What we know:
Helix content is 45%, strand content 13%. By secondary structure, the protein is an alpha/beta fold. The protein folds into 3 domains: 3-239, Rossmann fold (3-Layer(aba) Sandwich); 242-339, Tyrosyl-Transfer RNA Synthetase (Orthogonal Bundle); 353-442, Roll (Structural Genomics Hypothetical 15.5 Kd Protein In mrcA-pckA Intergenic Region, Chain A), CATH 3.10.290. The chain starts with a helix and ends in an 8-residue tail after the last strand.
Amino acid sequence: MPAAxxxxxxxxxxxxxxxxxxxxxxxxxxxHVSTNAGELKALLAxxxxxxxxxxxxxxxxxxxxxxxxxLLMRRLQLAGHNPLGLVGGSTGLIGDPRPTAERTLNxxxxxxxxxxxxxxxxxxxxxxxxxxxxxxxNNLDWTAPLTAIDxxxxxxxxxxxxxxxxxxxxATRLNSDEGIxxxxxxxxxxxxxxxxxxxxxxxxxxxxxxSDQWGNLTSGVDLIKKSEGATVHAIGTPLIxxxxxxxxxxxxxxxxxxxxxxxxxxxxxxxxxxxxxADVIDRLKVFTxxxxxxxxxxxxAVEKEPFRREAQRLLASEVTALVHGAxxxxxxxxxxxxxxxxxxxxxxxxxxxxxxxxxxxSADATAETPIAQVLVDTELVASLSEAxxxxxxxxxxxxxxxxxxxxxxxxxxxxxxxxxxxxxxKKTLAGIRDSAANVTSP
Length: 442
């Protein structure tokens, strides 16, 4: 584990103002459904237990929904319990049922590569040191050697089809025009098999996951009860939505990824900074290790001085640092200040500028392109006449310098990476790339 990640983990702690970890989990809104709350409360307050959460490699990165589970795992580890991070090399070859249609199955080579990516990401959020060091497991290790006959005899006999088709994800698909294949229908059995195997190998007695996975979570609970005569537990976290009911972390269908190549640190910082006042306190509870007292102070600040956006700024800093490190936070703040005219664009490196422009309306142009035309091309204005008026009124800036004439052109790029930053007013930005810089002479 990198030293920076280890140092960050060492500074994390649960809130000592709570009587036990279960009380803190409930206050933070992390328990939507569970097997037996009373038994879980006592279990987590007692001797260390082993628990697990599974992550399927159906994409090359985890996203913010997975981050909820990773932070829940970390809180349980901080309470003294033993985490198992499962990355599903076998279940990733199938994928859990989606509400609408069959998944496109990825190749074995792709899934194996993604397993490595996800294991690396999971490792950043758990400690692999000390008496309750985390361990990584891959369900391909116990499913690959299993024959079809053994699977049906040892595992399949404990499942009842009537119960399986009542699971929400399965029922939704059965009632759709698409239907459901046996491949995806069998997913709940494979996840149940995982829990049983981890119970047998590690004494694992708790599985966590999103509440939309509740049918799969209880599959293992029921299997262990039937096959081993033992009682184990599950916790389902709530599906996090914004105050308007939209699914959290989605923008036009795109997830906020934990991989900086898919979602840049700047984009992640801006995502959290734009959190609505109605949502920010709940986000602080779930996604940060700030204390109940500090979050209470921020709640007062949101109510009395919402224009300062103190809660949003701290949320953006805390979560971006958690995912990408403190240096990424500093670079994101510097970039934002410079882009909005409160700092020197020249201090930004090409990578940071490129990350920022990736999140802005953009266009390609050359040094000879009129600025009025670029305003239209980037859709900062609707027409050339509107562009000329905006310039005449003194409201257009190129690289933070006011554009003085309606006939001005971009001129040679002076920023790293051959780009320009165009701003209309105080907050409306666009990025322009020098198309000539990408042309190779014969």
